[in-house]
Specification:
- The chain folds into two domains: 2-169 and 345-360, Glycogen Phosphorylase B (Rossmann fold), CATH 3.40.50; 182-342, Rossmann fold, CATH 3.40.50.2000.
- The protein has 13 helices and 14 strands.
- The protein has helices at 14-28, 40-43, 80-85, 101-112, 126-129, 145-150, 157-161, 202-211, 244-253, 271-276, 312-324, 326-342, 345-360; strands spanning 2-6, 32-38, 60-65, 77-78, 90-95, 116-121, 139-142, 163-165, 188-194, 217-223, 235-239, 256-258, 283-286, 305-307.
- The chain starts with a strand and ends in a 17-residue tail after the last helix.
- Residues 369-377 have low confidence and may be disordered.
């Protein structure tokens, strides 16, 4: 079985991370994989996309230009001849709202004459998935039941029946060594990485200002483009885009991982959690939609620790608790690793392989979800 994946690649982006974890796990399992990625000149115009590595793997081909949010689904460009001439049995398209879907639809029918088409849904609104539904996909993959209940169901039972739930893959790397910078000394080390909007850090900065009067601490903030506009002496900032292995070594060496994310009405998952959960460093995050599918108890404790967004009292009390109770940190670490293992990239890759085998045999795909829509809060 030969597999091609059309997606962003080697970038600070959840679409890219999904493709990277999936592709590398498929290769590890012995499958031949080719990746069709966007040219950087077009992808880099998006706020979410910044390249991480300078060189792509030899099996990665940059053969399409992205469109933008206002032209979508029109715009962009695809090297249709290259995509049609490459040998593969399955083409997985990571569907996101800058993908040149109208250009792809012009070649989709010819691809289906010799290969199967699988769509992975990253779009969180009906409006962004609708253009993809003009293509006759052999199978559609979503990350959890919210996508079925809130988005896919609007396109009818035929689409629902060909849709399967395959969780977002989690990175499980056992050979990462913890790195702790010298400036931490014996301080409590908090870490955040990424490039979220500045206002999403407000809860953490304000609560840490209070905690800094009670504990010796440092907040290490690693951002891909610019520093936060703060100058507190206990905040250390770095502008860089480390590889996944390097950033995981940083997180593993920290005491607490603060993950900033604001609320949204879209159906979303957190690729940052999927990337870093297995390190075992407790993740503290607001109770927004990015994390609503991660189960926690009434105190917000589970594989991560959730607090009420904007409630700095709730955050303050929970950070004090996690600082002072080693047993709580160990409990979260245990649950985090168990959850990551349940959704490891290798297990997810095997689920994709099972799906590929079903559609290549041209058997009816039994969608991996319940037949009843579940109401979500």
């Amino acid at each position: 079985m030969k597999i091609a994946i059309m997606s962003r690649w080697n970038a600070t982006c959840g679409v890219s991370l999904h493709a990277e974890l999936l592709a590398r796990s498929l290769i590890k399992l012995g499958y031949k994989v080719a990746v069709f990625a966007p040219v950087l000149e077009s992808a880099n115009t998006d706020w979410h996309h910044l390249p991480i590595n300078g060189e792509d793997e030899e099996w990665v081909y940059r053969v399409y230009e992205e469109t933008d949010d206002y032209l979508f689904p029109s715009g962009g460009r695809i090297d249709k001849a290259f995509i049609q001439s490459t040998d593969y049995d399955i083409l997985v398209v990571e569907g996101y709202q800058r993908f040149p879907v109208r250009e792809f639809s012009k070649v989709a029918r010819r691809i289906k004459e010799r290969a199967k088409l699988v769509l992975v849904v990253h779009t969180g609104y009906v409006r962004d998935l609708e253009p993809f539904m003009r293509i006759n996909w052999d199978s559609i993959v979503v990350f959890d039941e919210r996508y079925l209940n809130e988005i896919v169901k609007h396109f009818g039972e035929v689409v629902v029946r060909k849709t399967s739930i395959i969780p977002y893959p989690h990175a499980v790397l056992d050979d990462i060594r913890a790195y702790r910078p010298e400036f931490t000394d014996d301080k409590i080390l908090f870490i955040s990485y990424g490039r979220q909007p500045v206002q999403e850090y407000l809860d953490y900065v304000r609560v840490l200002r209070k905690l800094a009067r009670e504990y010796s601490l440092v907040y290490w903030v690693i951002r891909g483009s610019s520093k936060l506009p703060v100058s507190d002496p206990w905040i250390v900032q770095k502008v860089k885009r480390p590889t996944m292995r390097v950033i995981l070594s940083y997180v593993m060496g920290a005491d607490i991982h603060l993950l900033p994310k604001s609320e949204t009405k879209a159906v979303v998952v957190s690729s940052t959690v999927a990337q870093s959960l297995y390190t075992g460093t407790p993740i503290v995050a607001p109770n927004t939609r990015y994390f609503e599918n991660i189960p926690v108890d009434s105190n917000g404790i589970g594989p991560i620790l959730k607090y009420e967004l904007g409630n700095t009292i709730d955050l303050y009390l929970k950070l004090k608790k996690i600082i002072e109770e080693e047993s709580l940190r160990e409990e979260i670490k245990r649950r985090a690793r168990e959850y990551a293992l349940m959704h490891s990239s290798e297990k997810v890759a095997l689920m994709f392989i099972e799906l590929f085998r079903e559609i290549l045999r041209e058997e009816p795909v039994v969608a991996k979800h319940t037949n009843t829509y579940i109401e979500t809060n």
